[in-house]
Amino acid sequence: MQTDQHRLSYSQLSKWMECEAAAYAEYVTKTWQQTDRTAFMLGRYFEAVLFGDLQSAELELQRDIQADARVLTQKRGAATADRLAAEAAVVRARAQPALVAYLEGDHWAEMSCTIHGVRFKCILDVLHLERGRIVDVKYVKDLNRTWCERDGRNVKLPWWRAWGYEKQQAIYREAVLQTHGVACDTYLLPVTKQKPADYDLLGPFGPPGQLERILDDLAEPIARAIELKEQKDEPIRCEKSSCDYCRETRFISGPMEVRL
């Protein structure tokens, strides 16, 4: 039987790949946790309203109030500006018949799969087995190309590649294949937080065989994550200014030489 040390999800793996030290503090020593859960709570509420799941939407509102997070509801009970923007974005997205058609299927379908000997837990936003389709909904800042660091260089990539969502698509496709024996096409359905909201429908991700190659490329990151979870090596700090953990725990021992 596998323990939590030997299990992963896409979101957890992505954290290990972003900063080993931050993931180690969160999942192994449990001495640190990212405090800003605004994006998660807002995204979950947005999806519930988009799917027409009013019960889940109400549950998210209650969680927000109980946690005193004030992400969705203000102290006096009024909706926050972020919540109103999310609801307005839903109205715009649902006015697009092509987008609505790709929301058909089972919502938040849970399943697991084994990749490179490690068990992955997956929650698929939309799964339509009869049509062989997986749709991942993203509530994002915008659809612009995004600057990110790759191999020590700053490069500008499509927003979905900057966030590594092609890896998520590969993992979800494998989960459905192992669970149901269906090789699904995968799609991204992003809606932005802009006013007015923008939207898109990307997919299927290809060409054929590319998602399988992405899974092959995950062998080393998965093995490294498990090695660190088993405390067989010391984690490496990313030291990026965008990393909350590295900024919070940074210690300066002296000046750094600047070469002109």
Explain how this protein is built:
There is one protein chain. Strands 1, 2, 3, 4 and 7 form a 5-stranded mixed β-sheet that branches. The protein has a two-stranded antiparallel sheet with strand order 5-6. Helix content is 41%, strand content 19%. 27% of the residues are buried. The protein is built from 11 helices and 7 strands. It has a domain of 168 residues: Alpha-Beta Complex (Lambda Exonuclease, Chain A). By secondary structure, the protein is α/β, with parallel strands linked by helices. It is globular, with a radius of gyration of 20 Å. Strand 5 and strand 6 form a beta hairpin. The N and C termini lie far apart (57 Å).
Strand content: 15-25%
**How would you spell out the order of helices and strands?**
EHHHHHHEEEEEHHEHHH
Mean pLDDT: 94
Which architecture name of the domain at 4-26 and 99-243 does CATH use?
A: Alpha-Beta Complex
The helix count comes to 11
Helix proportion range? 40-55%
Instruction: Provide the gyration radius in Å.
Output: 20 Å
Write a compact overview of the structure shown.
This protein is of the alpha/beta class. It is built from 11 helices and 7 strands.
What keyword list fits this structure?
globular, Lambda Exonuclease, Chain A, single chain
